[in-house]
Design brief:
By secondary structure, the protein is of the alpha+beta class. It has one domain. It is built from two helices and nine strands. Strands 5, 6, 7, 8 and 9 form a five-stranded antiparallel sheet that branches. It is globular and about 45 Å long.
């Protein structure tokens, strides 16, 4: 008669421990400030959403949750891909998948500056840790 109660208590304890472990997990250092085409950019938390602060201090809310980060190159500077003379950068976030997996679920959103205006592409979702990707991931979200 006590077994259902014990199982319920154990299940609740496991859920609670999992939640604590997720909260205590260290987060990687995120690049939230960058220089894009000689212009300062930053990323901020705006009510739980990743938001780009443009050089004129106006904000563009991106289609992903906070925290987010700029995609960096090997020199730890903003990675910029150029296509048709249009510079493009990316913002990303990665969430570790539950154990025993060592993978992540990542989101990446490319942003381009076209005729002086910032435009965000569609979000790409992929199963890998980090912000990698090739030039196609920067270019494909836009209609050219």
């Amino acid at each position: 008669m006590r077994r259902p109660f014990v199982v319920a208590v154990l299940a609740a304890s496991l859920v609670s421990l999992s939640a604590c472990a997720a909260e205590d997990a260290p987060t990687p250092t995120a690049a939230t400030q960058a220089i894009f085409v000689d212009q300062p950019l930053s990323l901020v938390d705006d009510q739980g959403r990743c938001t780009l602060v443009k050089p004129d201090q106006t904000r563009m809310q991106l289609d992903m949750e906070w925290p987010c980060s700029f995609s960096l190159d090997a020199q730890q500077k903003l990675r910029v891909e150029t296509f048709n003379n249009t510079p493009i950068f990316a913002v990303w976030r990665s969430d570790k998948m539950p154990a025993p997996s060592h993978d992540c679920l990542s989101k990446m959103q490319a942003v381009r500056q076209l005729h002086g205006t910032f435009e965000a592409g569609a979000v790409s979702t992929f199963a890998a840790c980090g912000s990698g990707g090739d030039q196609k991931m920067y270019v494909a979200p836009f209609t050219w």
